[in-house]
Amino acid sequence: MADIVTIDRPDVVALIATMADRFTAGDRTEAVALALRRLGDAPVRTGSLFGVLRGTVRVAEGVDLTEPLPYEPTEAETGAEIDR
What we know:
Elements: H1 10-23, H2 28-41, E1 47-48, E2 58-59, H3 75-78
Antiparallel strand pairs: 1-2
Helix pairs in contact: 1-2
C-alpha cells in the first residue's frame, strides 16, 4: 500500500486545498480521507457513466447523481470532540 500519493492536476490540488481549509483546518490528508470515506459509503450504480473510459464507472440502480447529498453537520458545528 502506498504511503505517498502524488496529484499533478492543478485544479485537483486547488480543490483539495480549498476543501482542507474549509473542513479540516488545512489538513489536506484528512480532507482526502474524508472525501474517500464519503465516496466509499455511497451506493454503487449498475448503469455506466460516460467519462474518459466508457463503462468503467458503475452506480447502483435508483441512485440519482444529480440529487444533493443529505446535510451532515461537522464535529465543529455540533461541538462534538474527536477522540485521538
